[in-house]
Amino acid sequence: MTYYLNLGSNLGNPRLNLTRAMKAVGDEFGPYELSHAVESKPQGFDSTRMFMNIGLTFESELDPEEVLSRLQAIEKHISPASHRRADGSYADRMIDIDIIAVDELTFDTHHLHVPHPRMASRLFVLEPMAELAPAWRHPRTGLTCAEMIASLTDNR
């Protein structure tokens, strides 16, 4: 299966945090491909710190729940701090690793929703994924990342 991830950081040295996360993903899952880096404003919470995001893709026969568990362990190793504040809202973070898609599969569990439910509204996810997988189509909408990007920019 092909996994598509988005990695983000807005605390400390984001470039260094992303580099550490990429190395850990490579050590855990093997070879990967990277997109260009994208800078973005925080989504879902207020912060003055910009995020640096990067798309990453790799192949694995592991099931998505196992991949998620291993990615969460990488996050905790880099930074044990929670991604949420005491009130449940998002917080600044050293590293955030999200599974955006797995091939063109769909599934929803208590811990994981694939494709990522908010990917279509986030340029910092769509731009890197469009670079890594230009022919990929969202299994629920049939749209490519480029088409989702056009939809976002048409509505601004």
What do these coordinates show?
The chain is of the alpha+beta class. It has helices at residues 14-29, 64-78, 123-132, 145-154, and strands at residues 2-9, 32-40, 51-59, 96-102, 107-108, 113-114. It has a four-stranded antiparallel beta sheet with strand order 2-3-1-4, sandwiched between helices. Strands 5-6 form a two-stranded antiparallel ribbon. Helix 3 packs antiparallel against helix 4 (145-154).
SSE layout:
Layout: E1 2-9, H1 14-29, E2 32-40, E3 51-59, H2 64-78, E4 96-102, E5 107-108, E6 113-114, H3 123-132, H4 145-154
Antiparallel strand pairs: 1-3, 1-4, 2-3, 5-6
Short description:
This protein has 156 residues and is of the alpha+beta class.
Range of strand content: 15-25%
Mean pLDDT: 91
Distance between the termini: 35 Å
Order of helices and strands: EHEEHEEEHH
Helix content: 25-40%
And the CATH topology? Alpha-Beta Plaits
Main sheet record: 4 strands, antiparallel
Q: Which radius of gyration do the C-alpha atoms yield? A: 15 Å
**CATH structural architecture:** 2-Layer Sandwich
Q: Class in CATH?
A: Alpha Beta
Please give the order of strands in the largest beta sheet.
2-3-1-4
Q: What's the β-strand tally?
A: 6
Structural class: alpha+beta
Supply the number of structural domains. Answer: 1
The unreliable regions are none
Overall geometric form: globular
| Count of separate DSSP helical elements | 4
Classified in CATH, the superfamily is 7,8-Dihydro-6-hydroxymethylpterin-pyrophosphokinase HPPK
